[in-house]
Amino acid sequence: MPHAGSLAPKERAYLQDALQMENLCIAKCGVYADQCQDQAMKSLLSDVARSKRYHANQLKRLIGQPADAAPGRQYQ
Amino acid sequence: MANREKFAPQRNRLSDRDMLLDLLATEKYMSHLYDHAIMEASTEAVRDTFVALQQDEHTTAQMLFDFMQRQGWYTTGANRQKFGRRLQGGQRLSGGPQPPASGAWQPRADSRYAAASGTRRLGQNLGGDGRPGRQPAWADQGQRGRSDNRQGWDY
């Protein structure tokens, strides 16, 4: 596992950008799942959110932040 | 009525279709982001992670697309016949102008424009010898000389 110091500045910028977008997507999935009426769509959104949370944790691991163990909704 | 709520939501709410469209657009953006990131990555581990994440984005986008297509919310050319009636039956899936009542695309305006733009002499060099497409338009320009050539581009 690479430690935080070994990242190129560009890589770090891309990782942080991606993490921000993944977090935005998690937030959107949560809001949309609350608003939508369709049960099938709710489960689809929760699937998407789960995958996004996994992505965010992987990105955080590369950046060097501690990953979130508890799968909860997170903003930023 | 439940169906109506899907398409005409309360004020300041997105319809279900708009939510999925937004997520799909986000996926598209993130796929581009990961594509750039893969190209810029210099560490092996980082690049492998980006490749894996982009693959996941593709899978997620496919899931969203499949769901929307099952609902008839996303019509491509291939299945427009199947869902066309449903979409034109008075349901507005999202904002924007309604399609014309006839539903059919009218090519006449564009053809009239092409016919009226004759002053530019578009395509005049294409069928000169009566065998259109036989030679490229610039094939004989070397022999015709510069002045003749310039006349052909008289705007």
Q: Could you please describe the fold and organization of this structure?
A:
The complex is a heterodimer of chains A (76) and B (155). Chain A has 76 residues and is mainly α. Chain A has two helices and no strands. The longest helix of chain A has 27 residues. The C terminus of chain A is likely disordered. Chain B has a domain of 57 residues. Chain B contains seven helices and no strands. The longest helix of chain B has 28 residues. Chain B starts with a helix and ends with a helix. About 16% of the residues of chain B have low confidence. The chains are: A mainly alpha (76), B mainly alpha (155). At the A-B interface, α1 and α2 of A face α1, α2 and α3 of B.
The coarse silhouette of chain A is: elongated
Total number of beta strands of chain B:
0
Tally of domains of chain A: 1
Would you count the extended β strands of chain A for me? 0
Q: What is the distance, rounded to the nearest whole angstrom, between the alpha carbons of the first and last residues of chain B?
A: 60 Å
Measured by residues with Cβ under 8 Å of the partner chain's Cβ, the largest interface is:
A-B, 33 and 33 residues
Biggest beta sheet summary of chain B: none
Number of helices of chain A: 2
Percent strand of chain A: under 5%
Provide the helix percentage of chain A.
55-70%
Low-pLDDT residue spans of chain B: 88-92, 95-99, 105-119
Described by its quaternary structure, the protein is heterodimer
Shape by Cα distribution of chain B:
extended
The sequence of SSEs of chain A as H and E is HH
Q: Point out poorly predicted stretches of chain A.
A: 70-76
